[in-house]
Amino acid sequence: MNDRLAVRKTYKLYVNGAFPRSESGRTYEVTDVKGHFLANAAWASRKDARDAVVAARGAFAKWSGATAYNRGQVLYRVAEVMEGRHVQFCAEVAAVEGLSASKARAAVDAAIDRWVWYAGWTDKLAAVLGGANPVAGPYFDFSIPEPTGVVAVLAPQQSSLLGLVSVLAPVLAGGNTAVVVTSKERPIPAVTLAEVLATSDVPGGVVNVLTGDAEELGTWLAEHADVDGIDLTGAPAGRAMEFEREAAGTVKRVVRPPATEPDWTADPGLSRMTPFLETKTVWHPIGV
Amino acid sequence: MTHVLDPDALPDDARALMAPLPPYDDVTRSDSAFRTFLHGLPGVDQVGAEARVAQLGTRSIKTTAKAWAIDTAISMVDLTTLEGADTPGKVRSLAAKARRPDPGDPACPHVAAVCVYGDLAGVAREALGDSGIHVAAVATAFPSGRASRAVKIADVQDAVANGADEIDMVIDRGAFLSGRYLDVFEEIVAVKEACGPAHLKVILETGELVTLDNVRRASWIAMLAGGDFIKTSTGKVSPAATLPVSLVMLEAVRDFRAATGRQIGFKPAGGIRTTKDAVKHLVLINETVGADWLDPDWFRFGASSLLNDLLLQRQKLRTGHYSGPDYVTVD
Amino acid sequence: MSVFEYAPAPESRSIVDIQPSYGLFIDGEFVDGTGEAFKSVNPATEEVLTEVSAGSEADVDRAVTAARRAFTRVWGPMRPADRGKYLFRIARLLQERAREFAVLESLDNGKPIRESRDVDVPLAAAHFFYYAGWADKLDHAGLGTSPRPLGVAGQVIPWNFPLLMLAWKVAPALAAGNTVVLKPAETTPLSALLFAEVCQQADLPPGVVNIVTGAGETGRAVVEHRDVDKVAFTGSTEVGKSIARAVAGTHKSLTLELGGKAANIVFDDAPIDQAVEGIVQGIFFNQGHVCCAGSRLLVQESIHDEVIASLQRRIGTLRVGDPLDKNTDIGAINSAEQLARIKELSDYGETEGATRWQPACDLPDRGYWFPPTIFTDVSPAHRIAREEVFGPVLSVLTFRTPDEAVAKANNSTYGLSAGIWSEKGSRILKVANQLRAGVVWANTFNKFDPTSPFGGYKQSGYGREGGRHGLTAYLKGADRP
């Protein structure tokens, strides 16, 4: 048999297209569901969150300004690259979530397919959510959806990959940029996803992945004045209300957490895109 | 020294003859320069212009303000007959009405002018005598303006010789619409010269120019060429004097005076039939160019049936009850 | 030279019949409130118009209970087409009593009759007419399969467009099958109370619309009531934030339409005369008491002097005075409190070094008045360039390039509306695309229509009112998490 000693990976953050360690130097131990050591993940600090917001803001103009067709292709590319790491994702999901090989495979399949689903949405949103408004006067008046801006995503704590993709992809499809706080105890697939994002065509800064504690980082992100929206799905029980209150200070768009983590295989519809889409209405006279 | 050659520039001596007032004395140096100038004027948003006049149209002019407006409007009327069937008798009857619009009320002001074809200007002149009422004659192959320059000039000279002290000319809309702005300009300059001491009103026939951008450009051509008044229409083309057109022309005379110091008069004509129309125009003047233009020297209504409606409204205000068509004269 | 003086042309107030006191409208009837009564004042004369009940917490509870009962038993189960027919009835009644509403609105609010008559009231009726048609077509609204109403909506509206804001709130809520408890603004409760009469004339089932007058405490009681499923608020950003905090962690859904500091951008190729009209309409409409007012004029440096000269000339023709005079362009400031704020910020503008210009204009001796005002030499750092004045005060800034215009326009915590003036189509579309604002008026300003979604980006709020989008605030379906 193969007695080669494996080369292990150092798990880092993903900020502005690069893989830094936490500025704080902190790490925390990640184990599988049986308690076996898997890795020392970077323990993101408030300053890492701050840097991630700066990166996301910096990337917003280009990502939101890209054509919807282009964004669709980029998201589809993510699915393509994930497919090539299928085996790795299955192993990681199985390890962190304690799933059987077949259930882990089903979760990874669904996660990849979810990117495909959202990739196809980018250039349909304007038709479905926008339109011409027949105002009672000589004006051409139309409404279009536009991204909200920088969205902080507290990813689900349980579903480490499918849940993560299910909250992240809709934010990106609409043209937002994201700062993601991963599942605290199950961050490994998220780091691998970050490597996928880095090697597909997603511009640096569009997605920033922070491994660590949503309880700690949630406050900083909810209060951050340059964050426009926050998805509290992975907020720790008992803290969501506080985060929502903090988010009110700058009138952030907020997605409240469900009482229990939902079945991520269900058809999401538009429900995770619309909270982070604005509607812009433009008027112009019709004359000669 | 570098020269920018202007292929269609006029010779210097020709330019000097027809140079507009400063600071615009250079804009007619060539077709292309003139075109650049006219197309560099601010655009007019049609919907915005219509919204503005609609809002002014809601002004409620009552009691003393209405009485003032009616008398002022009467004194601004160019009482007009421009029919093929016009005769000396018809013109004399019109002149009598011009002098005493309301035979039952000597306090009623007389109109500003009587407006006729040039061949009848002499009849009008004689009938009006020393009343102070002007004689306006349409000329330059009115209303189409489709004749040679020489014929148009002769038309003007004839009307002036007959006693007209105001000439209402039409611009060459064909030349304007084909972009030959300098031709339009030169013709107005020539007509102005032919007018001698007579005042020149330049009819743009805005119904044929169609867009408000064109109305603004044509207004500027007429003002730069030395017209004393700019006038909307002949009355022979519909639409004639609409409020948005009047708004744009008033903005033109306002801006021209601000830039050159020279005040130009304005005359809407055609389609103004009711007191309400007239009052809306007075409001438009009041709030666009101000009181300086609220004077027959600077503002005229080209109209015929308007006068009787003004008189009926005047009687209503005076007596407190409504009047009827038998209480005003048939022209 | 003569002067054309317009004689007074006052609209008769005999058409309105203001009672000496008003109760609350709960469960289809006017009832006495248990809170202390307060006075509603005509801001143009400081005359007390009437006394109005202040709804207490107990009153709000009664109203919510009535609304819940009506939702469960009557309005929820009702055939959608019938719900629509009630709304059509209301639209028609508003049209029939339009003059009465217009006069009452001008008396209570201070806005010119020309605006209440030509804008507020017709648009309010149009809103009901528009949403009436949606009531039986919700399945086709593209909001997911079989969308359902949320339940009881608690709605708190401002004083700047009392009836119109009521219509924006009530019409979509009812069309979607919700019942409502509405709190009008403290200083302008009367048109809402007259609307209650309209509900009675329409035979609207009791409890579907409840109107609880009062001040901030009454509003808080509505927002914080446990049995309210939906909160809709239009007003200041500050209060909006406190409401968002109050509903945090609850099941209530929330829409907010908050403040603004709109940039009105005038490029050097603009249709200048219409732009000047648009600037005037943008900042002096409704005394500038407009959340989407174009309060920051961004004018290209090359035409700054020309535009300001034209603007000053035009402002000189504005007629300030009696709101009931049909020729009045600018009426009274709504309250002494608002007048004090406008004065404070304007004075601060001068302190900071901006140049104030006001036309010569005679203001009435009594009542709350502020002349139309322009500040030039304003820098983006000045308070009058950043804070919402909510009055007839325009701050003028300049720019040199389109990029600079966009950067300055977006340099605000607000994002409600913006204006663009240019004759170049592709530039308009590019700039409209770059502006972070919910409504962009190009070559026009302050236009509203029930079919046209309205609402803000950033701290100007979230959710849309008007159009198909306006329904989403009052429905739950597949497209909401």
UniProtKB/TrEMBL annotation, chain A:
Residue span(s) of domain Aldehyde dehydrogenase: 26-254
One Gene Ontology MF term: oxidoreductase activity
Keyword Iron assigned: no
Domain of life where this protein originates: Bacteria
Protein's UniProt keywords contain Transferase: no
Keywords of this entry: Oxidoreductase
One Pfam family cited in the UniProt record for this chain: Aldedh
InterPro entries the record matches: Ald_DH/histidinol_DH (IPR016161), Ald_DH_N (IPR016162), Aldehyde_DH_dom (IPR015590)
SUPFAM superfamilies membership: ALDH-like
Ranges that cross the membrane: none
UniProt-recorded name of the protein: Aldehyde dehydrogenase family protein
Protein's organism: Blastococcus haudaquaticus
Source organism phylogeny: Bacteria, Bacillati, Actinomycetota, Actinomycetes, Geodermatophilales
TrEMBL record, chain B:
Keyword NAD listed: no
Similarity comment: family membership: Belongs to the DeoC/FbaB aldolase family. DeoC type 2 subfamily.
Annotated GO MF terms: deoxyribose-phosphate aldolase activity
Pathway assigned in UniProt: Carbohydrate degradation; 2-deoxy-D-ribose 1-phosphate degradation; D-glyceraldehyde 3-phosphate and acetaldehyde from 2-deoxy-alpha-D-ribose 1-phosphate: step 2/2
GO cellular component: cytoplasm
Originating species: Blastococcus haudaquaticus
UniProt cross-references to Pfam families, sorted A to Z: DeoC (PF01791)
Signal peptide interval: none
Record has Cell membrane as a keyword: no
Name by which UniProt lists this protein: Deoxyribose-phosphate aldolase
GO biological process terms, semicolon-separated: carbohydrate catabolic process; deoxyribonucleotide catabolic process
Keywords: Lyase, Schiff base
Catalysed conversion reaction: 2-deoxy-D-ribose 5-phosphate = D-glyceraldehyde 3-phosphate + acetaldehyde
EC number, UniProt record: 4.1.2.4
Automatic annotation (TrEMBL), chain C:
Keywords of this entry: Oxidoreductase
Domain of life: Bacteria
Pfam families documented for this protein: Aldedh
Active site: 257
Name of the protein in question: Aldehyde dehydrogenase (Acceptor)
Domain (Aldehyde dehydrogenase): residue spans on this chain: 30-475
PANTHER family: ALDEHYDE DEHYDROGENASE-RELATED
Molecular function via GO: oxidoreductase activity, acting on the aldehyde or oxo group of donors, NAD or NADP as acceptor
Family as reported in the entry's similarity comment: Belongs to the aldehyde dehydrogenase family.
Organism: Blastococcus haudaquaticus
